[in-house]
């Protein structure tokens, strides 16, 4: 996560995008891009925000221990 923070400090406009952190696009109901850190053996993974926020919207179940 420090690498992402450092990339943002160096370039607030493109730093995160160059590291693969895509901007959130779309409505909350549609979901958008979100980074998940330390998922299983992966350092970071780009996921749809509905994976996390979907339960609040009544869509699916939240997995607090993804693999």
Features:
single chain; 67 residues; alpha+beta; two-stranded antiparallel sheet; 21% strand
Task: Enumerate how many helices there are, as a single number.
Answer: 3
Distance between the termini: 19 Å
Strand order of the largest sheet: 1-2
- Mean pLDDT, nearest integer? 83
Overview of the molecule:
The chain is an alpha+beta fold and 67 residues long. The protein has a domain at 24-67. Helices cover 25% and strands 21% of the residues. The protein has 3 helices and 2 strands, in the order ααββα. A two-stranded antiparallel sheet has the order 1-2. The chain is flat, with a radius of gyration of 13 Å.
Short description:
This protein is α+β, with helices and mostly antiparallel strands and 67 residues long.
Question: Would you spell out the secondary-structure blueprint of this structure?
Answer:
Blueprint: H1 2-10, H2 15-18, E1 33-39, E2 42-48, H3 50-53
Antiparallel strand pairs: 1-2
